Structures are given as structure tokens and as C-alpha cells.
Amino acid sequence: MREPTQTPTPDQRDTFTPGPWTATIPWGGFGSIEGPNGELVFGLSAGMPNERQPPDVCEANVRLIAAAPKLLYAARAIKRTCPCDPDATREFNVAWGLLEAALFEAEGRV
């Protein structure tokens, strides 16, 4: 998959560190997320030594968290520009509900 050609823009009401965020590959059950200026956004521990997830799971979790701003911006863009008829299909209604729920949670409106 190739990188998007447009840089997403944050909403003025956003209070989180703007993206893009960069993931460090976890080592020994630890990882971090850094903001665009190298500032620490989030530190991630996979748990106590006897509870740690395998390295591939830790890496996947860190990458997903680092993608959060892009996912939020993409969800907003889709919701704003979708030409679809929300009443067209049951599957669409389910997907739209999931999109709205994710946006509400990401924007702190839950």
C-alpha cells in the first residue's frame, strides 16, 4: 500500500497531539509513539514479564495506535464527503453506525 499524497488536516477542536505519529518498534515489550516534532505522545508497555504479549502483537498494537490521527482524519473525510444513500442497505447502516461510534469515541463525545 502506498502513502497518501495529501496531508490530513486536524480539526480546530482537536486537543490531542496532531499527527503524523511515528511508532517505535517495541523491544522487550515496550514501545512508544512520537509526534511530528519527536515529542512523546504515548509509551506502551506490554505488561508484566509474565503477562507480555508476543513481539509481533506488541508491534501491531503500536502501529495501530500510531495510525490513530490518520484514521480519525480519514473517517471524518469519508463521513463529510460520502455520496452514498445511508438508507440504501442494512450493511451500510451498520458500517455508518460503526463510523459514527468511532468518531464519537475519538472526539471524546461518548
What can you tell me about this protein's structure?
- With about 110 residues, the protein is an alpha+beta fold.
- It has 2 domains: about 20-65, no CATH class; about 70-110.
- The protein has helices at about 55-65, 70-80, 90-105, and strands at about 20-25, 30-35, 40-45.
- It has a 3-stranded antiparallel beta sheet with strand order 1-2-3.
- The chain is globular and about 50 Å long.
- The helix content is 25-40%
Report the order of strands and helices: EEEHHH
The Rg value, from CA coordinates, equals 17 Å
Percentage of residues in strands? 5-15%
- Global structural class: alpha+beta
Question: Uncertain runs with pLDDT below 50, 5 residues or more?
Answer: 1-5
Largest sheet, order of strands side by side? Answer: 1-2-3
Morphology: globular
Please specify the SSE layout and strand pairing.
Layout: E1 22-23, E2 30-34, E3 40-45, H1 55-66, H2 68-81, H3 90-106
Antiparallel strand pairs: 1-2, 2-3
